[in-house]
């Protein structure tokens, strides 16, 4: 059973290199562009790619990603069509793909059927932002059996006990949310991040990825200097793709990767 995300981090650690994890919303502006964007990011330095399934009530997403999801839904993008597109593209990608989706579509389909379908489409991991630790058991084990790694989120407000419990259960890596609130482009990354990274380090040796609000190459460099194993960039890439097109996200991806090295 391959665990592609864990293997990716092991390989990067052996080279002493942090991971760059860009995020895009599937279907914005259309799925054909999403397929091309996945390939461009893969070529231009993405180590892992997070692919957002558009959802009508995205609680954790800021205005940029919400707007992208709305546009994608208006285009008629649905989970089925996202998985069909991913199934065609994933064999050509080196970077493992993490699917980002809310819990409702999973519940609607049934956990086993959902996991079988995303596995078949080539997804290596799963992030479910509205699934609390207490309810994650139902998906962690069946996902692990299929080689899908479910990445759990640590919030800046999480208690020490909760951080330890999440770190213990999270698969692939731990997703540290750098700010309280929703995703979005911010001028500076929350200053609590270094101490949170240290706190997580004390309870696990799993990789730590930091996301929410990272929009500049210097933010990415800063987060790596603070000790993160991965930098997750969402809104800044989604916004560029919408306004400037595919080439610009490829260049931006390269610039981020260079800054991290």
TrEMBL record:
Q: What is its EC number?
A: 4.2.1.20
Query: Which residues does the Swiss-Prot or TrEMBL record annotate as the active site?
Result: 50 (proton acceptor), 61 (proton acceptor)
Pfam families recorded: Trp_syntA (PF00290)
Q: What keywords are annotated for this sequence in UniProt?
A: Amino-acid biosynthesis, Aromatic amino acid biosynthesis, Lyase, Tryptophan biosynthesis
Statement: the UniProt record of this protein carries the keyword ATP-binding: no
What are the GO MF terms of this UniProt record? tryptophan synthase activity
Q: Which InterPro entries match?
A: Aldolase_TIM, RibuloseP-bd_barrel, Trp_synthase_alpha_AS, Trp_synthase_suA
Catalytic reactions on record: (1S,2R)-1-C-(indol-3-yl)glycerol 3-phosphate + L-serine = D-glyceraldehyde 3-phosphate + L-tryptophan + H2O
UniProt feature coiled coil, ranges? none
Q: In which pathway does it act?
A: Amino-acid biosynthesis; L-tryptophan biosynthesis; L-tryptophan from chorismate: step 5/5
- CC per GO annotation: cytosol
CDD domains according to UniProt: Tryptophan_synthase_alpha
Q: What does this protein do?
A: The alpha subunit is responsible for the aldol cleavage of indoleglycerol phosphate to indole and glyceraldehyde 3-phosphate.
Subunit structure, as described in the record: Tetramer of two alpha and two beta chains.
- Write out the similarity annotation: Belongs to the TrpA family.
HAMAP family (alphabetical): Trp_synth_alpha
Can you name this protein? Tryptophan synthase alpha chain
């Amino acid at each position: 059973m391959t665990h592609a995300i864990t293997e990716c981090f092991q390989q990067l650690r052996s080279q002493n290199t942090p991971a760059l994890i860009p995020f895009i919303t599937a279907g914005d502006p259309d799925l054909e562009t999403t397929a091309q964007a996945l390939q461009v990011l893969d070529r231009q330095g993405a180590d892992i790619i997070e692919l957002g399934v558009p959802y009508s009530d995205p609680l954790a997403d800021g205005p940029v990603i919400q707007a992208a999801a709305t546009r994608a839904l208006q285009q008629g993008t649905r989970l089925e069509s996202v998985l069909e597109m991913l199934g065609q593209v994933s064999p050509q990608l080196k970077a493992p793909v993490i699917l980002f989706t809310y819990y409702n579509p999973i519940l609607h389909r049934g956990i086993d059927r959902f996991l079988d379908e995303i596995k078949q489409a080539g997804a290596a991991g799963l992030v479910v932002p509205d699934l609390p630790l207490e309810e994650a058991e139902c998906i962690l084990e069946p996902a692990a059996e299929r080689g899908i790694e479910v990445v759990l989120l640590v919030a800046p407000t999480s208690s020490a006990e909760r951080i330890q419990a999440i770190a213990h259960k999270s698969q692939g890596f731990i997703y540290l949310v750098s700010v309280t609130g929703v995703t979005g482009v911010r001028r500076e990354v929350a200053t609590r991040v270094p101490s949170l990274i240290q706190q997580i380090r004390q309870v696990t040796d799993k990789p730590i990825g930091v996301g929410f609000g990272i929009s500049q190459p210097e933010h990415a460099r800063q987060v790596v200097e603070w000790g993160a194993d991965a930098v997750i960039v969402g809104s800044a890439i989604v916004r560029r793709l919408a306004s400037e097109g595919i080439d610009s996200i490829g260049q931006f991806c390269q610039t981020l990767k260079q800054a991290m090295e």
